[in-house]
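Reading a protein record of the kind used here takes only a little practice. Think of the row as the fold of the chain written in a discrete alphabet. With that in mind, consider the following protein and its fold in token form:
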Amino acid sequence: MGTLADTPSLQGKEVMGDKKKLIEILIRNHPTGEGLNGRTQEDLVPPNPTLNDQEIADVLTYIRNSFSNKASMVKVAEVKTERSKLK
């Protein structure tokens, strides 16, 4: 079991950056295996495709506006669009 130091940061430009990448990471692993803030996909929370679009938008908006982050909200329509591309 990892330690708190092993947990990827939820702060920084990558969390506040590309919403599409964040949405994809929550729905399924990013195709490149790329994670966030220098961490690999395996370091992140496993994808959860059972979350609905509103839940994903809510979780990502919370993260993007907590932990010293100040970023725009993730809209349900953005999640819906990205989910449709992943099918």
The chain has a mean pLDDT of 78. The first helix runs from residue 13 to 16.
